[in-house]
Amino acid sequence: MVDVERFRLLLEEERDRKLSLLKSLRSDISSVSLARQDSNVDDEHDPEGSTIAFELSQASALLEQSRVGLDQINAALERIAAGSYGRCEICAVAIPEGRLEARPWTPFCVEHASASQDSLRRS
Ligand SMILES: [Zn+2]
């Protein structure tokens, strides 16, 4: 039997971390955007402009990643509340505790996690 309470704490910790990361990324992005407007650089031809554009795209990618991660964490917390936490959403097999320790937000067993990643890659 999985110690759900322990994973709930892990997930809440991770959620707080993600929330503060999202907050700092959003302020980074808006300050970089403002700096770009102020300097009025041409992204295509100014070397400094392309660096800023690169930083912005990096920060946006990280922001998107964190947002997806946060969704997964919230979904896992909902499964805890619903009492379905720790079981694979596809085959309903109990997810090994070691796997939950590494990825407490995962809704899949090892087998179906790789299967769902494959289908994401294919689509
Ligand atoms: Zn499964």
From TrEMBL:
Keywords: Metal-binding, Zinc, Zinc-finger. A zinc finger (dksA C4-type) spans 88-112. The lineage of its organism: Bacteria, Bacillati, Actinomycetota, Actinomycetes, Micrococcales. This is DnaK suppressor protein. Coiled coil: none annotated. Pfam families: zf-dskA_traR. Residues 83-111 form the Zinc finger DksA/TraR C4-type domain. GO terms for molecular function: zinc ion binding. It comes from the Bacteria. The keyword Metal-binding applies. InterPro entries: DnaK_N (IPR037187), Znf_DskA_TraR (IPR000962).
